[in-house]
Amino acid sequence: MSASVPPAAAATDFDGQRALLPWLVADIGGTNARFGWIEHAGAAIEHGATVRVAEHAGPLAAARAYLAQRAQAMGPAYRPPRGAAWAIATPVVDDRVELTNAGWCFSQRELRRDLGLDCFLLLNDFEALALALPQLAPAQLRPVGVAPVPQAVAGAAAARAVIG
After folding, report:
1. What distance in Å separates the CA atoms of residue 49 and residue 47, rounded to the nearest whole number?
2. 16-20, 97-101, 124-128: least confident range
3. 45 neighbors 24 (Cβ within 8 angstroms)
4. In DSSP terms, which residues pair with 25 in a beta bridge?
5. Which residue of 26, 97, 105, 140 has the fewest CB atoms within a 10 Å radius of its CB?
6. How far apart are CA 161 and CA 132, in angstroms?
7. Which comes out higher in pLDDT, residue 61 or 160?
């Protein structure tokens, strides 16, 4: 189960927030937080960087460290992110989030406000992976087990799983 903090102002459709670029994306675990940058609609994630969770007081400090690197690298072309989508290795039930395998505890609303974001989506990392499954190309899929999967079953209707 997950909860996301709704976008600011009148915008309520997350998919409609593509105009709110650039985006700060992250995969946050108990040991490392991996950040990336999406500059424009349809762009791949770029400028990935990993920071150690233990070296930062919380996700705000870690994100600010990453954003300071981006600002320095981009110079005058830097624009702060307007949206963010993060996957985190802990249950996401309401506004208050506590990373179960590290010392971070934070409010989604405060994080969105402090980063100046118009839109912020926070998902459990397995939920994020499961939501990505329909976007995978056939070449990115791997059968589990020894029985071959008939091509007719390997399409969109086939069962897919995230195992961790």
Report:
1. 6
2. 16-20
3. no
4. 36, 85
5. 140
6. 11
7. 61
- Residue 21 phi, psi (nearest 5): -110, 155
Q: Which residues pair with 123 in a beta bridge?
A: 87
> To which residue do tokens 């990336």 refer?
36
Which single residue is written with the structure tokens 């690197």? 69
**In angstroms, rounded to a whole number, what is the distance separating the alpha carbons of residues 48 and 66?**
9
Structural tokens at position 11: 């915008």
Residues in the chain: 164
Instruction: Give the tens place of pLDDT for each residue, 43-63.
Output: 899 999 999 999 999 999 999
Strand partners of residue 105: 98
Tokens, residue 148: 């071959």
Positive/negative CA dihedral, 41, 47, 48, 51: negative
The answer to whether residue 143 scores a pLDDT higher than 90 is: no
Q: What is the pLDDT of residues 69-110, one digit of tens each?
A: 999 999 999 999 999 999 999 999 999 999 988 889 999 999
